[in-house]
Amino acid sequence: MTDYSLLARQLDALLDTRDALTNSAQACAFIMQQVPDLNWVGFYLHREPQVLSLGPFQGQPACHPIPFGKGVCGAAARTRETQRVEDVHAIADHIACDAASRSELVIPIMANDRLWGILDLDSPSAGRFDADDQAGMEALVRVFVERSDLD
Ligand code: SME
After folding, report:
1. Distance (Å, rounded) from C-alpha 36 to C-alpha 118?
2. CA-CA 20 to 30 A from 30: which of 11, 39, 53, 60?
3. Domain residues for 46?
4. Atom 3, ligand 1: residue with shortest CA distance
5. Does residue 92 register a pLDDT over 90?
6. Can you tell me whether residue 143 is helix, strand or coil?
7. What is the CATH number of the domain that holds 27?
């Protein structure tokens, strides 16, 4: 089982600048290295209305842009609620960037009540993410928000 409280302390120590670009690059590299059974981890940024732009990531080249009306990432941006999908094949709206992806966890990143972006995690295993993974990853996102200047 992944020790998310240890990962949160390690991520807190790793993010030693306030720069959001640097911290988002470091955060997704750290998660990819530390969390097993992932094939894609990355940020999409909310830089123009109703659209997500691809940010720093680890994994295969990915879909860009993603409108708020589409996919699991769009649903997270629209609802501002974490989306946990056990089997992406069962979701008609899923955007398949990497055919290997079977399950997905998408966490909205809020800064001062504004949607700054989302963190997207894909796994090649169906049902990879449970409630503990969701809570643990949400805690890692809180560390990223606290350590970064998000405009
Ligand atoms: N599967 C996502 C698109 C992003 S990729 O997984 C990197 C979605 O349905 O929104």
Report:
1. 20
2. 53
3. 4-147
4. 95
5. no
6. helix
7. 3.30.450.40
> Ligand 1: which of 60, 63, 70, 89 to mutate, most ligand atoms within 8 Å of CB?
63
Q: Nearest 5°: phi and psi at 109?
A: -115, 115
Domain count, the chain: 1
When pLDDT is averaged across residues 42-51 and rounded to a whole number, the result is: 97
Do 67 and 54 form a contact (C-beta atoms < 8 A)? Answer: no
Residues 144, 124: Cα–Cα separation, whole Å: 25
119 close to 109: Cβ distance less than 8 angstroms: yes
Phi, psi at residue 142, to the nearest 5°? -60, -40
- Quick one: which of 51, 52, 53, 26 has its CA closest to 41? 26
Contacts for 49 with CB less than 8 Å, ≥ 6 apart: none
Q: How confident is the model at residue 1 (pLDDT cuts 50, 70, 90)?
A: confident
Q: Which residues does ligand 1 sit against, CB inside 6 Å?
A: 40, 62-63, 66, 71-74, 94-95, 97, 101, 104, 120, 122
Please give the distance, rounded to the nearest whole angstrom, from the Cα atom of residue 91 to the centre of ligand 1: 11
Q: According to the model, what pLDDT value does residue 124 have?
A: 98
Angle at 58 between CA 30 and CA 100, to 5 degrees: 120
Q: What is the mean pLDDT of residues 20-26?
A: 98
